[in-house]
Amino acid sequence: MDVKSLLDSVKDTGLGGKKKRPKHGFRSTHTEHLDDGSHVVRMQPHEGREISYSAKNTDDLAKKIKQYLGDKSEAPVPGTAPTSEEPAEKA
User: Fold this and answer.
1) What is the pLDDT of residue 90?
2) What mean pLDDT comes out for the span 43-52?
3) Which domain holds residue 69?
4) How many CB atoms lie within 10 A of CB 16?
5) How far apart (Å, rounded) are the C-alpha atoms in residues 87 and 31?
6) C-alpha distances out from residue 70 to 17, 35, 50, 76, 87, Å
7) 48: left (phi over 0), alpha (psi -120 to 50) or beta
8) What's the whole-model pTM score?
9) Residue 68, class by beta-carbon neighbours within 10 Å (0-12 exposed, 13-18 middle, 19+ buried)?
10) 55 in a domain, yes or no?
11) C-beta of residue 24 within 8 angstroms of C-beta of residue 46
12) How far apart, in Å, are the Cα atoms of 28 and each of 4, 42, 46, 51?
């Protein structure tokens, strides 16, 4: 196979194929671990503003991350997070 035909074969989808967005709607999640055992989480959705929140300990962190990244029916819509430290409760 020559170089031109190789480049033509990956032209549309790239070398790794077409990339799918995750179902949870976030581009990235960054967690900062603080000395007192708490955490600060910053989540960047594919569209909209960054969502930031804190967690008191590892158990709280796991609960909140699961709420945001878990089952799509349970996850808040990116860009509509509450302004307080606590994620929105299900109604």
Assistant:
1) 40
2) 90
3) 21-79
4) 7
5) 16
6) 26, 27, 18, 10, 13
7) left
8) 0.53
9) buried
10) yes
11) no
12) 35, 8, 8, 11
Domain count, the chain: 1
In a domain, 29, yes or no: yes
- Residue 79 has which token pair? 């860009």
Cα dist. 54→4, 31, 59 in Å? 51, 9, 12
Residue 5 three-state SS:
helix
- Is 85 within the bounds of a domain? no
Q: Determine the Cα–Cα distance for residues 28 and 88; give it in Å rounded to an integer.
A: 20
Q: What is the mean pLDDT of residues 2-25?
A: 67
41-68 mean pLDDT: 91
Mean pLDDT of 1-18: 66
Angle at 27 between CA 88 and CA 61, to 5 degrees: 45
pLDDT, tens digit, 9 for 90 and up, residues 65-88? 888 877 554 445 555 554 444 444
